[in-house]
Amino acid sequence: MLSAQNLVVSYGKSPVLNGLSVQFDTGGVTALVGPNGCGKSTLLKAILGLLPKSAGTITLDDVPIDDIPRRTLARRIAYLPQENHCPDYIVLGELIELAGYARYSLFGGPSAQDRALFADVLRTVGLSDMAHVPVNSLSGGQRQRAWIAMVLAQDADIILMDEPVNHLDMKYQYAVLDLVRRLGQEHSKTIITVLHDLNLASAFADHVVMVRQGKAGIFGPTKQVITPENIRMVFDFDADVFMREDRLVCLPRQDAQMRANAE
Amino acid sequence: MTGRAKVFSAFILILMAAFFANLSLGATNIAPEDILLAFFSFDADNYDHFVVIYQRLPRVLIAVFVGSVMACSGAVLQGLMRNPLASPALLGINAGATLFVVGGVVFFGISSAFQGIAALIGGICGFGACLMVARMSGMDGNSRGLSLILSGAVVSMLFIGIANALLLSTPELRNEFLGWVTGNINHVYIDLLYQMWPVGVGGVVVLLILSRALTLIALGPEKAASAGVNIVLVSRLAIAAVVLSSSAAVAICGPIGFVGLVVPHIVRPLVGAKQTMIIPGCILVGASICLIADMVARLAFSPFVLHTGVMMDLFGGVVFAFVVRRYYLTPGLRRSL
Hints:
The complex is a heterodimer of chains A (263) and B (337).
Chain A: E1 2-11, E2 14-24, E3 28-33, H1 40-47, E4 55-60, E5 63-64, H2 70-76, E6 77-80, H3 92-98, H4 112-124, H5 140-153, E7 158-162, H6 170-186, E8 190-194, H7 198-204, E9 207-212, E10 215-221, H8 222-225, H9 228-235, E11 239-244, E12 247-252, H10 254-262
Chain B: H1 3-24, H2 32-40, H3 47-81, H4 93-108, H5 112-136, H6 146-168, H7 171-181, H8 190-217, H9 221-226, H10 231-253, H11 259-271, H12 275-299, H13 308-328, H14 331-336
């Protein structure tokens, strides 16, 4: 289980995370939501030890993250940054193969088992016949699925994603998140993803963590967390939340929006 | 045979052709069978054998060493800084090594045995100065390392300027070192090769061992770290290997620019962007390019012998323009040129 206690992380002088504590449930999809600049991405980077923390601890199964060597950590936690850049001339198959770095010995390459996993991963994201295609010549939706495939090929049990469906149109947003959720169920992985859209969060997440001004405001099962009161408190915004065909819908109130625009 | 195997076979064939052409062509042309005879049954009284073994072979070995080391260094720097212009010559390494060798000779009269050490220290100082200028200019946070490249250009100009000034004010050394300063592959430097080769080979071996991690770093430091790469350790080791091995190359025959910049750009489209493929490719192609440049430098203006460094500058300048055009100009600007 992944958890953070009293986490303080600062860029320069102003703290972005200010005493954040949160516990992530094992298994399923957890959505990290919150207004811009509240520290969602920072939290993911801090979990991976990519940012220095001024206080607090992050533990994975009660072991402090700082005590886990990089290679060991990479076998437990994979990460998909918000922006991904691939150098020219790298083909999809090579990108996927790079993900297994933490499992290879110094001179050995991927094992037969690794290769089977890579083929499986490409099939899962629907890019089986694209392994020889340069990553930079894939379409936007394909490229995002390629990065997701790379994260899966790392074969970690926890996957952190930073806005995986940004820049995608609605069809791919739903396709990619549906894929992510299915993977979580089939391979029993824990997926923690930053999402902007509360409707996407309510459609795909089992748990929601609302981050408010560098502190985890509320966390718990999706239906308990996404409520008009909580949205009001965290986003400073009025919204109606109702059920339609057993799905949670979150509809911003027009008058609230107009008031916000006028101010 | 896969595409990549074909490409590597072609690289090896080109290298072998360049190797024999370089031994065979010159002021007097020597037949290939005489070259083989010179290798396998050396006759001390045969003038051709003498030329092959004591004049041309040393040049060839130096060219192979310098070309391979510089090309690998350039490829690794370009990946580490994610900047297509990164290379030992543009990051102050070559200029630092040059200045320290010239300064050592002018001020302390160091013998050629200590030139190598001076060049290694100089290369480290040159790269350090480049980092310092980048930090002072306050833009060391930018992701593509552009400030490092600009600082490297400033530091290089300054260091080469000082080295030239020192040489020009010391007439008795001018003739001996003016050639070296412009990058001159010459058989008289072979003793330095015997002294410095372990540094260069060691550096390239380190880079080969790190190559998989270096490929991941080219995807971005955060991605690499999350995939299990110890970024700080790998980049420090790689930079140390690059600085030391390219300084060793400078120690032998002076700064030969542009090999480090140009060769990776030739190799990458042919073998892909994995450093595990690029570094071996750069070893082969870097050596071939240096051999060819050396040959052209000797033959093009015969009976005059041009310096290999000058030849590489001519060739590299053109490629440099293409790299800038491809990576730095916006499509609109590119059309208007």
